[in-house]
Design goal:
By secondary structure, this protein is an alpha/beta fold. The protein has helices spanning 2-15, 29-45, 128-138, 147-160, 171-181, 187-195, 199-211, 226-231, 236-240, 279-284, 301-321; strands spanning 18-22, 50-53, 79-84, 102-107, 118-121, 213-214, 219-224, 254-261, 266-273, 288-289, 293-298. It has a six-stranded mixed beta sheet with strand order 6-7-8-9-11-10. It has a five-stranded parallel beta sheet with strand order 2-1-3-4-5.
Length: 326
């Protein structure tokens, strides 16, 4: 079935002279890597086509990857729009997406909104970049996979899989990653961009470890309010990334970062878990995502504490009914 879908997507790409590629709001490494990798492949393979990357949002920590394109509304009239790593229409970071003649959706989230004329969704994949790698290598005789494109795609595979540690990583994931490495990726420079930290970032980690809270059943959480963001001069993306600092606490199988967005007057939620699923919890609080990695939004501190209580009850039930979870 998916081989047929990939073939149909390739046919659509070859059919259109204008292609716009977009991703989700608040783009992470997978969203940036998958879209920039796909754009590079299409530009190298079809130099006569007009291929644009359009994104209304920005991620400071991935600025080293490069920027997006500005296009007029008229570009969309006879254009194919490809969204990558974007499960629902409301998360597309391109306000003009509906102007396109047709939409192709490539995504690895649990299906909730099949908005494309073609929907290639594989929620078992560890990243959308894994799907782009599979697509490029399936049609290697037709598509040009350069070192630059391979680097973007590998970056997304690395970041979304937690350096190949998270749920969804399989032998196929590693085989695809190996094929990308064979393109000559300079992974030492890439990892330096992704993982080297400033002294200010280390001070932030110290603050997080000093101020995190743990519920009776072991949910670890921290609230990055406006004062904390101002103290450490954080963007919303940088404040959100502290969720990864909570992942190594023994007995805490759910960890959560709450980030206040002063512009929208709402609290962004980043939910992560080990062994048990939290996607249903995220959906309850205006979000969703993956089984063990999801996002949500709450609109008051009362709602934030309600989410914490629900997470604590969920974890308590899991621990009471399961053995051998560490």
């Amino acid at each position: 079935m998916n081989e047929e879908i990939k073939q149909r997507i390739l046919q659509k790409i070859e059919e259109y002279d204008t292609i716009v590629v977009s991703r989700h709001i608040r783009p992470d490494g997978d969203a940036v890597g998958s879209t920039m990798g796909l754009v590079r492949i299409l530009r190298d393979t079809y130099p006569a086509k007009r291929v644009y990357l359009v994104d209304d949002d920005f991620s400071d920590y991935l600025a080293f990857c490069g920027g997006e394109d500005a296009v007029d509304d008229g570009v969309y009239e006879n254009a194919l729009l490809i969204t990558v790593d974007t499960g629902t229409r409301k998360r597309i970071s391109n306000a003009k997406y509906a102007l396109a003649k047709e939409i192709v959706k490539i995504d690895h989230h649990i299906e909730a909104d099949p908005y494309g004329a073609i929907n290639w969704v594989e929620d078992f994949r560890s990243s959308a970049c894994e799907m782009i790698a599979d697509f490029a290598l399936t049609f290697r005789s037709k598509l040009k996979l350069s070192r630059e494109a391979a680097t973007y795609i590998y970056m997304g595979m690395v970041t979304d899989s937690g350096r190949f540690r998270f749920e969804g990583v399989t032998g196929e994931t590693l085989r695809l990653a190996a094929a990308l490495l064979d393109c000559g990726i300079d992974y030492e420079t890439l990892f330096a961009h992704l993982y080297m930290e400033s002294r200010e970032q280390l001070r932030l980690k110290s603050f997080v470890y000093d101020h995190l809270q743990i519920t009776p059943n072991g949910v670890a959480y921290i609230y990055m309010d406006a004062a904390v963001q101002e103290k450490f001069h954080l963007t919303l993306e940088e404040a959100s990334n502290v969720v990864s600092d909570l992942s190594k606490i023994r007995d805490s199988l759910i960890w959560v970062a709450f980030i206040y967005n002063s512009e929208k007057r709402e609290i962004r939620v980043r939910l992560r878990s080990r062994f048990l699923g939290i996607n249903d919890l995220a959906i309850k609080y205006h979000g969703g995502g993956h089984n063990m990695a999801a996002g949500a939004t709450v609109y008051s501190e009362e709602e934030m504490y309600a989410l914490i209580a629900d997470a604590d009850a969920l974890l308590g039930e899991y621990k009471a009914t399961h053995e051998g979870w560490l």
